[in-house]
Amino acid sequence: MTNVERSVPKTLKLMDPSVQFRRSKAQCLGKADLSRRGSVDEDVKEIVQLLNSRDQFFTTSSCSGRILLIDGDSSGFEVQKQNCCWLLVTHKPCIKDDVMVALKKAGGDAILKFEPFILHVQCRQLQDAQLLHSVAIDSGFRNSGITVGKRGKTMLAVRSTHGLEVPLTHKGKLMVTEEYIDFLLNLANQKMEENKKRIERLYNCLQHALEMETTTKSQPKIRERNNLLSTHKKGRNPETVGDRCIAGQNDSKPEEDDDDPGFSVSLFPEEY
What we know:
- 41% of the residues lie in helices and 18% in strands.
- The protein has 272 residues and is of the alpha+beta class.
- The protein has one domain (8-203): tRNA wybutosine-synthesizing-like (SSo0622-like fold).
- It has a 4-stranded antiparallel sheet with strand order 1-5-7-6, with helices on both faces. Strands 3-2-4-8 form a 4-stranded antiparallel sheet, with helices on one face.
- Helix 5 packs across helix 6.
- The chain is elongated and about 65 Å long.
- The chain starts with a helix and ends in a 22-residue tail after the last helix.
């Protein structure tokens, strides 16, 4: 053993990926919730609990979707959330009166936003992330993607594109009519309703996909026997028997995942 090898602590030596994943999961789920709300949003609790109950996943952050009014510095070209004043935040449909009251506190460039559901999940293996990615795409979250870190950390982000962002004031002065604000809120509330439907669809599809995965893993011998039997049936393609049900129920083609525009693989910095 060289002097360099002796100087490397055992904790820094190569760790079994499964052990490392379990350790990361325990550390993440054991931390306090530092979000503004301080807890998981009600509309996504079932999804978060379902994922965290599985050995191959754990959630790192989530938001069920929200309508917010933020007031930023008029001298900037873009409102940054960390440097702005939050005038109004709601995870429910919003009414005009609440926005008008909040706008009275605006002194800069107030922006009305709708931000759809977002979920970040760390996955044990790439194939686990691909399963969730397929479910997310089928549920309407077309902007979802996978990121693989340089050290193998695999993250899935569930995202959609039906957001909304409209400036309402400039230097504290209201630049639009109340009628237009009413129109914007109707649009934002419609997006919120669609967002909720997609969350429900995601939960149902996720339940089904995980149940199918569990059944597949628990009955490998039965699957193998059925595949062998199917190859002896005259005029039968051996690949159609086992795959037709899965493809039909999920309405997706797993072999096309790599070509999906939502799928991306990037590298984190060395220190990640």
